[in-house]
Amino acid sequence: MIVDFLNLGRTLYRVDTNETDASHFPARYWRRTADGQVQCTLCPRDCKLKEGQRGLCFVRAREGDEMVLTTYGRSSGFCVDPIEKKPLNHFLPGTPVLSFGTAGCNLTCTFCQNWDISKSREVDTLADAATPLAIAKAAKDNNCKSVAFTYNDPVIFLEYAVDTALACHDLGIKTVAVTAGYIHDEPRKEFFEHIDAANVDLKGFTEDFYKKLCTGKLTPVLDTLTYLKHETDTWFEITTLLIPGENDSEHEVHDACQWIVENIGVDVPWHFSAFHPDYRMRDRDPTSKESLRRSRSIAQEYGIRYVYTGNVHDEEGHSTYCHGCQQRLVGRNWYQLSEWNLDAKGCCNRCGEACAGLFEETPGTWGAKRLAVRMNTKRKLAIAP
Q: What's the distance, Cα to Cα, between the start and end of the chain in Å?
């Protein structure tokens, strides 16, 4: 018995009440190789798979002579968060965002702060089943301005994320991606075509850091940042988790600042976030507040206008300031807004300088609240023939 049906133009899916588990959704971005393997072309991993194998991300797999996404319609859970938690400080401040992720990741960061989700190999991690339309409706029912693909990297569930974005936009809900930006050119274009705002992890600024701690490469991430700035209308911000002794040297921060100023400009907000010992890097000390403030100060010296500290209590480092007259435009105490000095056009109400980002006439009032949202897990996804 079909209880819901939707044609979003490119992708056809339906919700079915029978017991068929059809979460293995036909994937895009793969090719057959001359030696009979199926090669994923979604990200720079370029995984080659034999029958029954999965890619490093664990969620894209070979079935027969095709590739499938094994987590379409399946989530590790849904929660209404403050948008500042993504973190996004210049995108609809104070508003609630419906957040969810799936499982797996295409990087292997030893310092992962969400390792229980991103490194999961357990199907039981995926507790909730939801169609894209159900997610969009849940966001609207909970008065969310946006839906965030987060907790694990959404590029690995591109098909599910894009379909959800289409459903959200149909209902006037915006979309947010929290991503490492580790993706090839062609899928990058499709993915970000449907994303209104993004936070991109710039995990370090050396190829050695990416190779040693993430088994990845820096260059594709820089390509994503450059693409977002010059080829899209997607609002984006950057986050760097500062890890003592690994990516927090003044020299590396200077190099990153120079690249940002020269390639994507001074208006892209940058969040320096504090590391805490976790996953496979429990032998390091947490990042000190002094280290975060030093990096923030260096970035400000380069003229980067909006630099923040995160994962520590630092009201000055959480707040937004006018680059013209230095008035505090948006005061923040953790995720709670404490001050608002922007006019209806998103400009400083003292000197008239514009603040980069997307703002409404008045800020949201969600504050620091979190609200768990439970979907109907009895509903099964079935792919329309």
A: 15
- Nearest alpha carbon to residue 271 among 32, 107, 84: 84
Q: How many CB atoms lie within 10 A of CB 361?
A: 9
Give residue-wise pLDDT tens across range 73-108: 988 889 999 999 999 999 999 999 999 999 899 999
Domain limits for position 35: 2-72
The letter for the amino acid at 153 is D
Burial string for 211-224 (b: 16+ CB within 10 Å, else e) reads: eebbebebebbbbb
pTM beyond 0.85: yes
Mean pLDDT of 319-348: 97
The answer on 107 and 28 residing in a single domain is no
The contacts of residue 281 (CB under 8 Å, 6+ apart) are 110, 111, 243
CB contact at 8 A, 147 and 175? yes
Give the C-alpha distances (Å, rounded to integers) separating 324 from 92, 152, 303, 351, 353: 21, 37, 12, 7, 6
Tell me the backbone φ, ψ of residue 369, rounded to 5 degrees.
-65, 155
Return the higher-pLDDT residue of 119 and 47: 47
In a domain, 52, yes or no: yes
Pair (44, 107) in one structural domain = no
- How many CB atoms lie under 10 A from the CB of residue 285? 11
Interstrand relation of 380-383 and 74-75 (parallel, antiparallel or unpaired):
unpaired
Domains held by the chain: number: 2
* CB-neighbour burial class of residue 190 (10 A; exposed 0-12, middle 13-18, buried 19+): middle
Confidence of residue 127 (pLDDT cuts 50, 70, 90): low
> What is residue 212's three-state secondary structure?
helix
Q: What is the 3-state secondary structure (H, E, C) of 297-334?
A: HHHHHCCCCCEEEECCCCHHHHCEECCCCCCEEEEEEC
Helix (H) or strand (E) holding 133: helix 132-141
Instruction: Identify which of 58, 118, 105, 109 has the alpha carbon closest to the alpha carbon of residue 214.
Output: 109
Cα separation of 297 and 294, whole Å?
5
Question: Quick one: average pLDDT of 108-122?
Answer: 64
Instruction: Kindly tell me the burial class for residue 50, based on how many C-beta atoms sit within 10 Å of its own C-beta (0-12, 13-18, 19 or more).
Output: exposed
